[in-house]
Design brief:
With 148 residues, this protein is an all-alpha fold. 79% of the residues lie in helices and 0% in strands.
Length: 148
């Protein structure tokens, strides 16, 4: 089975360097997962290892975003956190499914589709709003520090 890669593009760029760099790392890990999924015969350990790393990195990334939201008092923080919780739960469900039932092509295809759709939609619809807010907040912070 052939799995598609997620490619970094202008449409995924938020313009906030810290978030964009973390998104690039997430894309790298998603693509490693999809590559392992495409060769899933005898690769269950690889997929489980990547999903554990992905879960840990997603947790790190979400905590980083949420710390920025708290620091700058982002008004959309609660809804943004709900989005994060949805993906975290889905990744945990994926890991549990792998542990209990093992691999199947149908399951892997469903997981890939969900992850790509969630990531692209979240970045384009939710993270871009956050990044715009953060850029403005940081600019205001810089002005207040310099006294202008």
């Amino acid at each position: 089975m052939v799995f598609v890669d997620v490619q970094w593009s202008y449409e995924l760029e938020t313009g906030f360097e810290e978030i964009d760099n973390q998104h690039k790392e997430l894309i790298k890990k998603l693509n490693e997962l999809f590559e392992a999924m495409g060769k899933f015969y005898h690769k269950e350990e690889a997929i489980q290892g990547i999903t554990v790393f992905l879960s840990e990195y997603v947790t790190y990334h979400f905590k980083s975003e949420e710390a920025l939201m708290e620091k700058y008092d982002y008004p959309g923080m609660e809804l943004h956190k709900i989005e994060h919780n949805l993906l975290t739960k889905s990744v945990m469900d994926f890991q549990q499914h792998l542990n209990e039932k093992g691999l199947s092509i149908a399951c892997l295809a469903k997981i890939q589709s969900f992850l790509i759709n969630w990531f692209v939609n979240h970045v384009q619809q939710v993270d871009k709003l956050l990044a715009a807010f953060l850029k403005e907040a940081k600019a205001k912070e810089s002005l207040s520090i310099t006294g202008k």
